[in-house]
Structures
1.
Amino acid sequence: MSARAETSSPWRSVFAPSWSQTRTAHPVPGFVWPIASALILTAIWTLAANRFDVTVFPSPLATAREAWRLIASGALEEHAGISIARLIGGFAIGGMIAVPVGFAMGISPFFRRMMEPFTEFFRFIPAIAMVVFTLIWFGIGEASKLFLIAYNSFFSIAMATEMGVARVERSRIHAVLSLGGSRWDAARLAILPSVVPYILQGMRIGMGRAFGTIVSAEILAANSGLGYLIYSAREFSRMDTVVVAIVTLGLLGLAADRAFVALARRLYRHALPGNDNL
Amino acid sequence: MIDKRFVNTVLPYLLSVAIMLGMWQLAATQINPLFFPRLETVWRSFWVLAQGDLASQVLVSLTRILTGFGIASLVAVPIGLLMGTIPAVHRLLDGPVEFFRFIPPIAMIVLAVAWFGASNVAIVFLIGFSTIFIVTINTEAGVLHVVRNRIRAGQMMGAGFWQVFRLVVLPSAIPHALIGMRISMGAAFSTIVSAEMIAGDNGLGYLLQDARTTLRTGNIFVGIVLLGAIGMLTDRVFRALVDRFGGEHVGAR
């Protein structure tokens, strides 16, 4: 998942060394391709939509019209805003718990072994399976959604933090200690700064999952948010509304992902570390 | 004498599991059992369910996951390989794949039910949707991560396109494809639970939803613990596969 950033720009075939040396300058300018693929996709969509009723498969035009209606009435902004607020709130809570826990797991092997039975087991339980409890515990209000998102983000952030601590160069810690710094100084000055990119990567992975969790939670138990918009449209077979909400979710997810990459680049001037083990 | 390795490795695990169970029981005695059941209640629920149709419900969910996951992987790996080797395919498909992978699979549920009815097919479609993009992207990344000098070495020794592809590119891409499958298996578990809760009439997700509406908290705990155990097991299987099929290439990168 992490390969995109490093490999995208001067894009050449893996076989390039042997057969494309004579035509390194591509005859087609770069911007043509995304436009071409968007056009092809829209054409396929239109053709497919022509064969079905609008209550099954809305056309691009019907979807665009519905998008305009939802934006003009402010409904789309309102539902999207509510979902985003839930995501950010849950993420803040989850991150505030996960970073210290992950940090302690990385520093102390004993603490790591104490926590591992929990983290290794609970991270395989889909956050949405917890929805039944959170409804019993917290009721149908905001607290249950915040808990789900916090639960969801905890594992990816804690494990990324732990991995970051484990990968800090030992010589940096030794440098602080040999210059007379305490273990606390080493943690603060040598370990913490090198762990921040890992924390960002953990947040980036957790954010992808959190979108799925918030949609499920809003479908199952909410009366606002993009998930609710999708599920309430079902009752009137308004598939055009459903597609608008789906596209909005995709765009929001893409924007959040790119924001994390940009933030990491800004802070560290290099790509995010690869975290295949999350 | 107590073995030192025992103190360092096994003891913390035992200690933490004991603390967890102790805290659970303590919490359960303080809180209304409707909110938080005791250990023995969960154990009893497990036995009642196990004598009923628990095994068949688990099997239903696993079959859906494996079907959707299998079909999607069969489609995704060739597409990923094509995107990695042919620049034009990459340029055409990169945009759509990058966009669709950010759509939460569960958001597709209303469309899936409209297209396929509230059936197995709709749920299998959602599993496929949560698998296909992750596996495609990882397979493509695998091709792009092939060490250039290995390709050059093959070509220098006179290997043609197909030989390089089969002997150099494919073996290096497989561990990445497997990692993609491992990641998407996690996503598939989360999707199946939501999908069965919303649109299923059997399976583990339905079990949870049913227990919720009838307020049988013991059953909810059984379902959640089972999900954790099965998810962990499949993850271990994929880890073993990655190690078996050249995980060292991935680590060495």
Note: Chain A has a mean pLDDT of 82.
2.
Amino acid sequence: MQPIQLFELASKQAEWLAVRQSVVAGNIANSNTPGFKAKDVTPFQSVLETTGIRMAATQPGHFTETEMASRVIETRPTEEIGVQESGNTVGLAEELMKEGQVKREFELNAGLVKAFHRMMLMTVRR
Amino acid sequence: MDPLVASLKVAASGIEAQSTRIRIVSENLANARSTGDTPGADPFRRKTVTFSAELDRATNASLVQVSRLGFDEGDFSSEYDPGNPAADEKGFVKMPNVNVLVEMADMREANRSYEANLQSIKQSRDLISATIDLLRASQ
């Protein structure tokens, strides 16, 4: 029997979405900071294809960044918004749109995990 | 720290920064006609606020903070009002360098950013509760 990989995949995507949400929140919070460059996370596809190397935590006090956190990149300013007078490249509307996207995908992800979990329980019950 | 909790923290820092900005705007608006009280004295000088991004080392997220509260060094306008206690010998009074329209525009922008930050708090909360809902019994 093949191992079930859906849960691993789903938790990876949930982690990616959570990191993306925190990056978008950072962009929104800094939407009026002079010289701030908008950031984003590399697409989930490329996260799946490459395996990252992370620092080992050998003691409880060690900080290790998650695999996803090392994938934060600066985005290019879009045509529509461009660079503002202060050197800021955040477009508020675009960031809110990204937030909506994150929310939809996260809820789909949680729903899938729930459904799959229910199916597994069904086979185990009685 | 969990990235979702980190984004709550980031949005909270944004809300704090924007409220400081709204406070400065209302100080400027309230003092838009505050003159000095001796002849030729300087009136109220417009205040400004500057933000800067601060990297939170533990979470790798960019918080925002108020980096400097400064003063607008622009010139004061003068108005003819001989009855004012701050009028000089020719009857002119220096008026604050506050432009009400600029302050209003600034207030609108602060308001909009504040709402965007609120939105990201709501969203992070929704995502966290979607995860918690997985544990809830489904029947």
Note: The mean pLDDT of chain A is 82.
